[in-house]
Amino acid sequence: MQLSAIGVPVEELDTPALLLDLDRFEQNIAKMSEHLKSRGVAWRPHAKAFKTPAIAHQLRKAGAIGVTVAKVSEAEVMAAAGIDDILIAHLVVGPLKTKRLAALQRYADVKATVDHVDHIAPLGEAARICGVTIGILVDVDLGLHRCGVASAADALRLARLVSETPGLRFDGLMGYEGHTLMIPDRLQKQAAIQEAIGILLSTKEVVEHEGLACRIISAGGSGSYQFTADLPGITEIQAGGGIFACQYYTQVCGVEGHWPALSLLATVVSRPAPDRAILDIGQKSVSSYRTPPILRDYDNCPILGLSAEHAVVEIAPGEDFPIGKKVAVIPGYSDFTFVLHDRVLGHRWGQVEVVWPLLARGMLQ
């Protein structure tokens, strides 16, 4: 009985199976790490992209200082696995979450963000009760209009309050230029990123002018990191998903020099017409967010649509897609694909080399 997939040839795996080409994965890691190192910017990759401490440790080995996460539960998974520098790039609200955040400080430096005065007192109280100090970044709206304070004056007000609150430590500022990622024209995108990051850096000047040091200025996603890292004043970049180079990052966001490393192995289960095949994957196993998935080895056979458990493929004349054939599918968006699976199978030279459980999958609280 086969107890592990390690050593199994990729073509013998059951489907659907989430696969990671380790050679391309490592090339993408090196690309991102070297790009940031050459500009003197630290790398804090967002773990929402990969959901497993195993990958976080691979990125630490390549120079990442820690990870970014979205939820306290993700931070708990990462800290339990030995990742000791974590930023929760979200808002920690409610007594259960603030207590958990405070408890985590005994095992890792887990920083949080605020964008409203009402966030601060509960965080300080939780820290004091636990006898710890929580690092805090003030979130600044750079034009995405999601979270973040609307002005430098508001940021200064919160920074002062954080610095005056026992149990809290003001560490700096965070912002996300997410509204710029899909601008198709390179020069227009660069200008939009400069404008957005300019808001963050001018806010830093205002805050530091009042004597509050901004040790951390955190920004950047995979879709913008190749521009954002060039701007003096940014201390760290949160880009994570670029290590997989899905369709969203390479085709929609224009990330350059990355190779698609993530794929989903699927099986042809039906041939209802000569020009149509059905695969055993659907929205429950692969994401079409922003852009559809594609067949890795058949540019002339587009995926026409996804339902819950089916993918409809248009078969070009002359292509052979018999029932039982296995094909590799590059996801539309890797972040939303990872959360649909319990494990990712890393392969090299045609066979599985590692199996990494996605321990932070489902960590929503």
Could you characterize the architecture of this molecule?
This protein has 365 residues and is α/β, with parallel strands linked by helices. The chain has helices spanning 22-37, 53-61, 72-80, 95-104, 120-130, 152-164, 186-209, 225-228, 247-252, 334-338, and strands at residues 17-21, 42-43, 67-69, 85-91, 109-114, 134-140, 168-175, 216-219, 236-237, 262-273, 276-279, 294-295, 303-306, 311-314, 326-330, 343-348, 351-357. The protein has two domains: 10-17 and 258-357, Lyase, Ornithine Decarboxylase, Chain A, domain 1, CATH 2.40.37; 39-240, TIM Barrel. It is built from ten helices and 17 strands. Strands 1, 10, 11, 12, 13, 14, 15, 16 and 17 form a nine-stranded mixed β-sheet that branches. The chain has an eight-stranded parallel β-sheet with strand order 2-9-8-7-6-5-4-3. The longest helix is centred in the middle third of the chain and has 24 residues, at 186-209. The radius of gyration is 22 Å and the shape is globular.
